[in-house]
Amino acid sequence: MSVSTQIQSLLSYLNQTIVGQEHLAQRLVMALLADGHLLVEGAPGLAKTKAINTLAKGIDADFHRIQFTPDLLPADVTGSDIYRPENASFEFQAGPIFHNLVLADEINRAPAKVQSALLEAMAERQVSIGNKIYPLPELFLVMATQNPIEQEGTYPLPEAQLDRFLMHVTVGYPDADAERQILKLVRDEAEGSTQTPGPEIDQATLFAARKEVLGVHMADNVEAYLIQLIQATRQPLSYGEELDSWLDYGASPRATIALDRCSRANAWLDGRDFVTPDDIRAVAHDILRHRLILSFEAEANGITTDRVIDTLLANVASA
Length: 319
Known about the structure:
2 domains, 14 helices, alpha/beta, five-stranded parallel beta sheet
């Protein structure tokens, strides 16, 4: 079975288990292929936790969930040195971050020190304890969630940490048909019906898939379009005074890299070995949503980052 076929079977397994959240399922697989982290925002009960748990069951990877709370300490995430009186020495006890797939649930409820510890793990793929550095697994993905409804007692994520996330995915409510399928699925589980087993894809296959994604061809004119989109976030006046009044800061070079990787992954998942401008547009909102800093005027007028991105895509000419 080819690498592509195995990854498609993983995506099908996610869609069968996580009903009505096809976009989230695809973005999870895309994050795996692009070797990045995911920030997911949505109301409670929309299968965010179940999605990454199901992903872990479909691949050869271990999973751990960390519930972020205001009293959480950095050591609760990274681990710490434990004193062993029997031999008068310190021994490192690894924390929950030392897993392949990590769910950082309600990440914005944790204080700055905890977020800083998570930031190092996400960015450097390592943990520093004292004067020692401990590497994280080669296959390492953090999916962080935040609840957009209740903001009391939360700590907004700093821009530097938001920029470390490959994508910011918003999750909405399922439609009526999907809701009916969810009811049937829950009833079947309650009755003890056998669930469809996951494909159990090994890590070597995932790394092979990443190499194939990196090998997807991007023509020079398509790459120029990608770069121009990013440049437009930094020089919005070139595309109108209205757009210029909405943006204070544009996207960083990490956005360029993320847009490149995810557009290649989108093409590869679609069964193509080349990238088109449509691939770039398909992932632009999730790549840029958390990286654009709006002006006070834009926020006062109810302008959202999604509307800004829509305007950018409408005004920047494609290849």
